[in-house]
Amino acid sequence: MGEALNEVLTFFEEWKPTLADMLASMEKRFTDQTIWENVGISKTTGYAEAKIFMDGFAAMHPIETAEVMVHHAAAHGNVVLTERTDNFFDMDGKQIVSIKLMGVFEMDGTKIVAWRDYFDNAKGF
User: I need a labelling partner for 61 at 20 to 30 A (CA). Which of 53, 86, 90, 114 fits?
Assistant: First the structure.
């Protein structure tokens, strides 16, 4: 397994067990210039903007934890593609959001340079 692919899969594992862990992983792996785009919905630069987006998402949905199911992944150099389902759960373990998506990560070692997720945003979150 390539280094970039391994880092992305590790990033997803770091989202457990709580939303706070997910945010801590984002803070650890983002730089001040990291671009995170939920295409058609939002685009953030750096961890501070990403956290504001996640705080808004969590205000809409009482997220306690997340699970990433990677269906397929491929890497070429520092670029990683992931077909996955991101599931979010409340404090009782009830699934409250499930998003099927395709993601693109551009990596620099352990750091995420750019992250773009493409999904059917007509369904909303």
Answer: 114
